[in-house]
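Structure (tokenized):
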């Protein structure tokens, strides 16, 4: 059983790797290609390209840009995935097919499930748009200390800078936690309430014929959603760890 589980997990890892290769917009093999793709993706003008070029000449700037590229790719993958889930919820899910939830109107349930996935698409899109502005601002500079603020003034500047450095990790924690919950919701509804749209209006013979393909489709979509929920939770832990390490520096 353990060996079978490991094979299944490896298959999901490989499928996820290929999915990311298709959904992530910036995938240059060398840094020069990566920065050029970044310029093209955001359709930067000459002044913005010059600003980006300046950052690529600095070691701190390159580290900052690499982090932003990973962030953009991650949100772009979420955006496409939730858009796909919205379509699946529309075509393949009927909450009322679960006996204890039979009182829920089909239209309202579909509107809620499709809507929540589209809200995640919007959130991911906004984060990508926000990354463009952050890219051009560059990494935040350390505060300038003065001899006159050797005590309280310098400590306040230092702590404010650390909080600013830790803010992206807090945002990532919140977003990934939300993504995790919606992925798991998708996994459960697709698996337990799979029913082809308008299936109730088909003859009973046809309903029986399509039930097996629909079940196989539900597995095909439910398992990746469960996997994405787990990996999103891993991102929460990762972001929390990085944020904690940043805040630990507030001991001036």
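Design, position by position:
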């Amino acid at each position: 059983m353990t060996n079978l589980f490991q094979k299944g997990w490896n298959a999901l890892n490989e499928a996820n790797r290929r999915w990311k290769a298709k959904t992530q917009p910036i995938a240059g093999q060398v840094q020069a290609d990566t920065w050029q793709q970044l310029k093209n993706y955001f359709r930067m003008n000459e002044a913005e390209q010059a600003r980006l070029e300046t950052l690529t000449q600095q070691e701190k700037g390159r580290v900052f840009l690499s982090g932003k590229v990973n962030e953009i790719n991650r949100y772009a993958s979420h955006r496409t995935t939730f858009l796909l889930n919205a379509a699946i919820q529309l075509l393949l899910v009927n909450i009322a097919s679960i006996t204890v939830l039979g009182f829920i109107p089909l239209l309202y349930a579909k509107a809620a499930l499709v809507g929540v996935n589209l809200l995640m698409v919007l959130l991911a899109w906004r984060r990508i748009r926000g990354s463009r502005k952050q890219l051009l601002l560059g990494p935040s500079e350390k505060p300038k200390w003065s001899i006159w603020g050797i005590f309280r003034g310098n400590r306040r500047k230092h702590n404010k800078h650390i909080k600013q450095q830790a803010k992206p990790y807090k945002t990532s924690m919140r977003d990934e936690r939300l993504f995790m919950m919606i992925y798991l919701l998708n996994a459960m509804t697709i698996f337990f309430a799979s029913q082809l749209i308008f299936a109730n209006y088909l003859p009973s013979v046809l309903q029986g014929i399509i039930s097996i393909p629909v079940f196989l489709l539900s597995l095909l979509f439910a398992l990746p959603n469960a996997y994405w929920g787990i990996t999103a939770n891993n991102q929460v832990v990762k972001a929390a760890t990085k944020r904690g390490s940043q805040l630990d520096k507030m001991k001036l």
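Reviewer-requested clarification: The chain has a mean pLDDT of 84. The first helix runs from residue 2 to 23.
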